[in-house]
## 1
Amino acid sequence: MTSWMVGIDTGGTFTDLIAFEVDTGELRVAKVSSEQDDPSGAVIAALEDLFATGVAPGEISSLVHGTTVATNAILEGKGVKTGLLITDGFRAVYEARGWAQPEATDLIDPFYRKPPLLAPQSLTHGIPGRMDYQGNELAPLDEDAVRSAARSLKEEGVDSVAVCYLFSFQNSAHERRTADILAEESGDWRVSLSSVVLPTIREYPRQSTTVIDAYVGPNMQRYLERLSDRLKEFGVETPQVFLMQSNGGLMRITLGARFPNQTLLSGPAGGVVAGEELARITGQQDIVTLDMGGTSTDIAMISGGRADETNEGRIAGQDIGTPMLQVRTLGAGGGTLAWIGPDGLLKVGPESAGASPGPACYGRGGERPTVTDANLVLGALAADNVLGGKMTLDKSASEAAIREHVADPLGLEVVEAAAGILRIVNTNMAVDLRLAFQSRGEDPRKYMLAAFGGAGPLHSALLARDLNIPKVIVPLYPGINSAMGLLQTSVRHVYLQSAVAGLSEVSADRMNEIFAGLEARVEDDVREEGFSPDQVAILRQVDMRYQHQGYQLPVNCPATQLTEEDKPGLKKAFDETHQRVYGASAQEEDAEVVTFRLIAEISVPRLELPEIGAGGDPATAQIAIRPLFDLNSASFLDAAIYDRAKLCAGDKFDGPAVVQQFDSTTVVLAGMSCAVDLWGNLIIETGAGV
Amino acid sequence: MTLDPITTEVVLSRVRETTEAMAHALFHSGYSPILRESQDGTAGLTDADGRVIMVGGGIQYHSMLYTKSVESLLMAYPGDAMEDGDSFICNDPYQAGNSHVPDMVVATPVFYEGRRIAFGVSVAHKADVGGLVPGSSGAGSREIFHDGLRLPPVRYWTKDGVIPEIENIIRTNSRVPDVVVGDLRGQVGSTRLGAERLQALSDEYGVDTLVEAMESLIDRTRDRVRAEIATWPDGEAQAEGFMDHDGADPATPVKIHVRAVKKGDRLTIDFSGSDGQTKGPINTPAQTCKAVTVLAAIAASDPTIPVNSGAFEALDIVLPDGKIVSPVFPATVNHYFPTSHLAYACVVAALGKLNPSRAVAPPGLGNGAIAIGYREGRSGRPTVQYELMVTSLGGTADHDGTAMVMGMCHFTPSTPVEIVETEYPIRIRKFDTWEDSAGAGRTRGGIGFVREYEMLSDVILTCRTANHEQPGWGVEGGEGPPVCVTSINPDGPDSEELAALDTREALAGTIVRLEQTGGSGYGDARRRPPEKVLKDVRNGYVSVAAAAEKYGVIIVDGKIDADATKDARG
């Protein structure tokens, strides 16, 4: 019987669907507009497109969804009316937002503004009661104050209540009792406890994260209920329906309403996961992904096969401490505008012409030059090969826009100006990439650059050469990579618990006790998802630091019960990690354990990339020769143009060359060579870094 | 040779990458909470003569001092005395240009093929460098010798590593030697990273191209500041403000006066009308005053202009020797911070009159810090807790002032309660918004806050904020906020209000409350929409009484009484 795995990625503009038939490896794709009154509408519309190709709802064996519902609720300020209970006398914690600092001109512009409070002070109530830094109760919870706050919030008609008390990560009793009282006072609201949402030290990020959970939780719940209903109506009956999380793993859709924060980076996470899959199949464990679309570029680092994580995320200015994949976004895409800055220098971005009006060459009213216009003038893009020939580009419009806005003001030829646009957008991306490497203490020469998105493969060879990265990989379907990633991961839950203590002081028993507490939460959650706890693979980590440091680094812990004898090994592993990341270590200093971390994973059916047929003669795939501008020699060179669909495993060719496909174009520079691997990936040897 | 605008942009992006990498290294290798929570430091690059090219991260008013540091360094190590691989330190404000002695400057000359092309530089506030009190910035200082260890420009590092004799001098003079030396080494690492990066960029683009691009950045800022000034009408404006007193003579307020004259593309900012330098520690070194003047000028024109030495070439800053904003040796300067902030507010006020489109109400005055010295921290070792105290921004033509940021550089240095209590034997009883602390106006200032501590052991406590007597001012008919208040055991029978600047021993059980004011108001408060006033009342920013008195909005039972409001507003 046929069995389809379906990934549906809702993006800002489009919703992408991919479906893989498990036995034959057949791929079907659909793309619909995301702009619908009800976001589940786009999902249903994409499924209808799939069913129109003959796939039956009952043939869907698993479905993974990347959603922007929670993200959009924050971006558009459309979360629910949210109340907040805090330790009495600490309203300035949220108001100050003392964590991440403003950037660029905000630093000195007196018109600078902080992002809005998602729970206003008018709906914030201080509750007497206090724990000390070790979780000892200094003052009991004032239950009457909780009741009176609950009644007031009920009168105000709040839908959701966040609770964040000081040191609740050490002792959650007051928060738990508060939840009981809130439930007694009303059954209608959703309650978010900071000791559940993010039990880690530092009250502001914990509180901000808890408020986000409260603010978007009901939206998420409504959305998922509606979506589940509609899937059932359609006859999609598989229980294997998952959401992509910001941490790159899946959770069963039934858990989604409880962990809405976990979906805030759902879309970009799919692309990073696809990068991890490339690391797995190629055996190249260190990869940096570059996902370049129309308006922006997402960059992520994968080291040792595992993508970097952060717990200092920010969505629309709102700080979020939930662990998520670390994705850097910069304003560089195909539609990014070139302009002359007030300093007289050529700038590219961050402003974009977007999809509408889009680049000048689209002929939709865009008059200002973009990166796409430059690529067209330089021969990297063909005028007649956009979306498989469905759209043609107007090169003379590109030339006119570049002439008027860049070349003439700077006294340059059009081609020189286009080359300048390319150099600058490339430099902007390279700067961000270098900083990403530096902040991890990594050497680009060990890495492979994975290029995704419509525009990533256009720029990747040039970037790799600049950065001294020896290899570039371009997967078979770079344009639908985020959707593909949805089908290439496992269920993953990450649990945190702060408990600050010197490593030499904290007993192994205490550490085991904390891990046991986290494991109990794993059991509860996976049972709720319908898994059995013995399916779970568990990785235990401790985030450590030297005394007085403000940041910590995760170190893997043995899977067995810890004993005192394990501590020197932990310290050594921490010293080594610190040495690698920051170039220094202090072996003589005691380390502190700050946060215990448990990562639980459960394997679910995943997409195995099918192998493509072998060939050997790329000449059969060559469709043309076209002049392609070469930045090194500042001249046009003849480049072979290949049709991606006709390339076979084992094919090899040299640059300068351009590989064209439906929704993306790959440039191979002069002096580089390119080979097609078993799975149809293009592997470009850049000649750098050796 | 003139570089083309494309190569210049490419090279400057790489220079920006370099300073960002330096800042990252600085803030991720430091040991003290001052660097990690307050970001009280910067890292950047100067040219071979010390002109500031670009500074990454951190607090921007620290960015202009490097010129003086490098000039002093070149005098101390002339000719070939500096070698590739050397790093130097200096913390004497009269030589390094730093704001006060805890701010240590590190400078690493960058050589390429034997030619000195630049300096990698960094400054960062140290937890303690000796002096009268823990934290080094005591209220009792009467000359610079009281402020702590002063180092002239001195070699600290060579290609072979640290010079232990020098490091020992620093260790010997600090109450918390490990933290200070840990941070200092982090600074050295940051500047050396900058040097390596510039050498690599010289390999990649050619040293002449790199140097020309960097120098051009200074010219571009100069030209942009001049071009902005040229768009203002010619004219003259004045502003002045007062510090309560200098800590030595509590009866005498100290004036800062600014006269700004704009003619063509020239802007003169003249501090000649300010009071003379003081005996107590509120003096602000000239280099710091110049830096805040630059920040104010850019804020009042176009904040997208990169901050570098080019701004000095566009402004004539008149600072006669011996003023409160330009003291001469051996005046003590340890409490420079609120004074420099007042100088900033005065320049913003004067320039707002010349260029009303960028006029804003001033940020709350009274920025400062507290330093608490413990014989034993939680770790059992002596330790110093240092926290910056800020206020809030003033209202603008468009919106209410932003709450709880530093006025001249919008950091929010708020050390988490949970970090403070975990590291130090102290309890924070309150970190709350302060009702009616914002200056009233059509747009009001950002709200102020109250932070209250209870000592759990005997400590030496230094509170150094400001403007407990001299209030701020509003703009366009707006009002200033109330003054800041610091009090000991505020609700008890032995309650006592402290002067803005105070050092004392405090026993376990002592309660200290700091009330830090909000920003000033912009425009007539009686023109603020009543619904916004009601919202402020509901949010706890404005009391019902103040709504009536300041805003003429009468609120009864949580609702606006429209008729009474109409009467009250006339």
Note: Chain A has a mean pLDDT of 92.
## 2
Amino acid sequence: MLTIHTKLVEAMLAQAHRDHPIETCGVIAGPEGSNLPLRLIPMRNAAQSETFFKFDAQEQLRVWREMEARGEEPIVIYHSHTRTQAYPSRTDIQYATEPRSHYVIIPTDYSYGEEIRSFRICDGMVTEERVRMLNSYESNLELAMVA
Amino acid sequence: MSITVHIPTILRPLTDNQKRVEIAGLNVIDVIEAMEQQYPGVKEKLVAGGKAHRFMNIYVNDDDIRFNDGLSTRLNDGDSLTILPAVAGG
């Protein structure tokens, strides 16, 4: 199950709709081993495509180093599907290499629903999981969300 | 010629769970070959068709080797080589 603050979900949705019809992408970092997404980092889609996304390699290095220095890991890796359902594509599965991350997909074509969906992807196996949205975290964690 | 290689989570099962290993080599492919000797299975994750695998990013210090000489990118003593799985999809 993915437990996530509603503000983070709203931020992902806003970014996805702003970038539509280009696929949006990003990561939400959280303390290593916590399973709690806190710090949302929108990433540039280097592919600038309606059917593909790719983190810019230089930006990714910078962000990953920063996470390591802060004792964080990518809790959520998100992207949008701009004209298909919010379910991992074959390419999504091929590229999924973080068994501990929640892979979140945001549909921006309303004919496929408006809700984000979350998946675990491990060794080519996709498992959908429940998304539990919270209106608040503990106050010290809420401060970390904007850090 | 000692190079510090930063290993991503996904490859750590192959490197006895080490996050960093010290490897000697004059260029990127040298280092990968030397790692393969010590940690069999690493090379096929990093190289495909004689080039860096499209699912992996390899950096020398701060630079993606795709924008340098790829696997032939030269290394100097004390350089770091960072491996990160590319994040992409459709």
Note: Residues 2 and 131 of chain A are 5 Å apart (CA to CA).
